[in-house]
Design a protein that fits this description.
- This protein is an all-alpha fold and 423 residues long.
- The chain has 17 helices and no strands.
- It has one domain: Growth Hormone, Chain: A (Up-down Bundle).
Length: 423
């Protein structure tokens, strides 16, 4: 017969075990986010990739088109992946597959840039598209289980602290990576400078994966063992669309900031006479902006919710293209404030939209909501391509100011996002 003392001891041990597991999961998630940020800081699409494509092709259409291909490759497969893995009791194996697919694609790209970059630039351009598409498709495959796992292992009242803290912890690593990237781009000859950065990024992602080896994913209590029939699943998707439509509209409107981002570097080089080392300075400034503002984003999300945080983030994002126009008279140095705000806004988008989606998604349908959110926001993918085409006939300043108008509209639209009351 179990005594009350024994039951009390068992309860204390169970709570203690739960706290230890929660702490381990939190730390594992932070580890992954920190080293993922390190790898991505070495290969920022808005600086390093844009500069590499510009060196390789000399075309703004290529710069914008590549951004489009990468976003589509990441988004479209997700809704099919979500239907397949939603009934699985554990999602971690799919996430690990995606992570190592990304590691392999960066490693292969590094080797190929070193091997054929100087002799066959046209071939390398298409290889770059293919391998980066694999990399971003891996990100799309991983994004579905990632959001679900984080939603399970991170309590709602700690998600702002998690997403913001992840970026804060990543700060020193990202700054160090940005400084290293600036040095590599300056001191190592083309194309080996880019090959080295891609190789280091592969190593960073491999180290990041160790964080998820530490996480203990609790099994899902699913109500069905197989994927739902498409007719039933489409009905679920329609209901989810109606619930997150305003969140998606804000993503698309504020996503016009991504339309201009690959072209700030090109603008600085073509119009402001920026030297080669300017790309490294822009990368460093962008990373610092993200590090400083992550404290703000975490505080805003946990205290006021994602809606307020996204409104502040969109307002700051609106200022980036405006400052690019107003400060262009200072030369390439005048774009440093723009890249600072880009860093702040990019990290803010991650914190705000991740937490906003988790606030709106029912627990058992998180994979579908995560995938659907990416698919519905796919129009953003075509904006850089549109910008590349427009820049054949319109000046940079007109593009930047037009972008600012759409972002400001998105800031106003945040008022329509449902306000979730936390218990």
């Amino acid at each position: 017969m179990t005594t009350s003392t024994e039951r009390t001891s068992e309860g204390i041990l169970a709570r203690l075990s739960g706290l230890i597991s929660e702490h381990r999961n939190f730390i594992g998630g932070l580890w992954h986010g920190a080293f993922l940020a390190l790898g991505m800081a070495l290969t920022q699409p808005t600086t390093v990739i844009a500069s590499f494509v510009s060196d390789l092709t000399g075309s703004t259409v290529w710069v914008g088109g590549l951004s489009t291909v990468l976003t589509v490759a990441s988004a479209i497969p997700q809704i099919f992946v979500a239907r397949l893995i939603e009934p699985r009791r554990r999602k971690m194996p799919y996430l690990m597959l995606a992570i190592y697919l990304r590691v392999a694609s960066w490693g292969a790209l590094a080797w190929l840039v070193h091997s054929i970059g100087a002799s066959k630039p046209d071939l390398l351009a298409w290889v770059l598209v293919g391998l980066l598409a694999v990399f971003y498709a891996g990100g799309g495959l991983g994004g579905v289980p990632y959001m679900h796992i984080i939603g399970k292992v991170i309590p709602p009242n700690r998600r702002g602290a998690f997403f913001g803290g992840r970026q804060i912890l990543a700060g020193p690593l990202s700054v160090g990576a940005a400084l290293a990237a600036r040095q590599v781009l300056t001191d190592v000859g083309y194309p080996d400078n880019y090959a080295l950065l891609f190789g280091l990024a592969a190593a960073g992602l491999a180290i990041a994966s160790l964080g998820f080896w530490a996480i203990r994913e609790p099994p899902d209590e699913t109500t069905y063992a197989r994927p739902k029939p498409w007719r039933e699943y489409i009905s679920q998707v329609v209901g989810a669309t109606l619930r997150i439509r305003d969140l998606v509209i804000v993503q698309i409107l504020t996503g016009f900031s991504l339309m201009a981002m690959p072209f700030y570097v090109v603008y600085a080089r073509d119009m402001l006479g920026a030297p080669v080392e300017a790309t490294g300075w822009y990368l460093l400034t962008q990373v610092v902006g993200g590090v400083i503002f992550n404290v703000v984003w975490a505080r805003l999300v946990d205290r006021f919710g994602s809606r307020v945080m996204l409104a502040v983030c969109a307002t700051i994002s609106t200022m980036a293209p405006i400052l690019a126009v107003l400060l262009s008279g200072l030369g390439w140095l005048g774009l440093l404030p723009t890249f600072f705000l880009i860093g702040a806004a990019l990290d803010g988008r991650r914190v705000g939209f991740y937490t906003g989606l988790l606030e709106l998604a029912p627990e058992v349908e998180r994979p579908t909501y995560s995938a659907l959110n990416e698919v519905l926001a796919t129009p953003i993918a075509f904006l850089p391509l549109l910008a590349g085409v427009l820049l054949q006939s319109v000046p940079y300043h007109a593009l930047f100011l037009g972008v600012a108008v759409f972002i400001a509209t998105g800031a106003l639209w945040t008022r329509r996002i449902p306000q979730v009351i936390r218990k």
